[in-house]
Amino acid sequence: MTTRAGFVALIGEPNAGKSTLTNAMVGAKVSIVTHKVQTTRARIRGVAMEGEAQIVFVDTPGLFRPRRRLDRAMVAAAWGGAADADIIVLMVEAHRGVTEGVERILEGLQEIGKGRTVALAINKIDRVKAETLLVLAKDLNARYPFAETFMISAEKGHGVPALRKWLAGELPEGPWLYPEDQIADLPMRMIAAEMTREKLTLRLHQELPYQLTVETENWDERKDGSARIDQLVYVMRDGHKGIVLGHKGETIKAVSKAAREELEEFLGRKVHLFLQVKVRPNWLEESERYSEMGLDFKDGN
After folding, report:
1. Distance between CA 41 and CA 18 in Å, rounded?
2. For a pLDDT cut of 70, what percent of the chain falls above it?
3. Do 153 and 265 sit in the same domain of this protein?
4. What's the burial of 173, exposed, middle or buried (CB within 10 Å: 0-12/13-18/19+)?
């Protein structure tokens, strides 16, 4: 039996569907999925099995023009994830086509893609006509020598099995990198924090979500098999704290309930989740916050 294993980096603009594709490939919710851009901060890896191959997905932050330290650290993490991978998959949204952002990524690929297998995945194909897709695929392939082009809908699953099968066949031969039943290499504390942050992002439609972060402060395994999880939500201003708490605390209660239910489903057991909101004006400049998110503080310089 010949086993294969390796890393696949999904790159693209924010909201291109990288997290949705990771989850579809892995068959579990490992990466945060919201309709807000820039929601994936850390390089979350999902592990998918395809025949005798183990595909480890590096779900990189979306590539965009960075303005703040956190932005710069996220972009550095995205290109770092691509540079470390065996295969790179560029995801482009069918209905948006070749944007300025996609052009910048194609430029970056000229350097990062050297000596690597790079595939193109045109996502959200259900949003455009077939002829538009063909023109877009031709245009992108004229700009970069992609090894293969896939037309997919990550959300609906169209084309996902074909992409997964192709990736499995392209990976180098070698032993598996993770136990077969392991789906992500992130510590559960971080996955739990990401789940809560997703619920906050969905609930709060203002600009606020980019100014907050969630940390799992304490994880206590109880004798009855349940877990007590204490989390801190850091915001930058007192006004933000009021928004997160909501009228009579109803926002934070709703967020806590939604996050707890998802955690219980994910862990398959009872969870007691406690959230506390704290004001930390400078959390975006604190190196330990970056470590918690799996980012390198120095990359933000």
Report:
1. 12
2. 76
3. no
4. exposed
Residue 212's φ and ψ, nearest 5 degrees, are: -130, 160
Would you say 116 and 144 are in contact if contact means Cβ atoms under 8 Å apart? no
Where among 113, 143, 170 does a domain terminate?
A: 170
**Parallel, antiparallel, or unpaired for β 44-50 and 53-59?**
antiparallel
d(CA 168, CA 287): 37
DSSP letter (8 states) at residue 134: H
Written as six digits, the tokens of 195 are: 């789940």
CA distance 89 to 66: 22
Residues 163 and 197 in one domain: no
| Span 2-50, pLDDT tens digits | 899 988 988 888 788 888 888 888 876 555 444 444 444 445 567 888 8
3-class secondary-structure state, position 181: coil
Same domain, 212 and 70: no
Domain around 202: 188-300
Is 15 part of any domain?
A: yes
pLDDT in tens, 175-231: 988 777 665 556 677 888 888 988 998 888 655 655 788 888 888 888 898 889 999
Dihedral, CA of residue 248, residue 189, residue 236 and residue 203, to nearest 10: -50
Cα–Cα distance measured from residue 59 to residue 10, given in angstroms and rounded to the nearest whole number: 6
Tell me if 167 sits within 8 A of 30, measured CB to CB: no
Of 140, 170, 200, which closes a domain?
Answer: 170
Helix (H, G, I), strand (E, B) or coil at 158: strand
Report how far residue 18's alpha carbon sits from residue 45's, in angstroms, rounded to the nearest whole number.
12
Sign, Cα dihedral of 167, 171, 173, 175: negative
Phi, psi of 243 (to 5 degrees): -65, -45
Q: Supply 10's token pair.
A: 């999904």
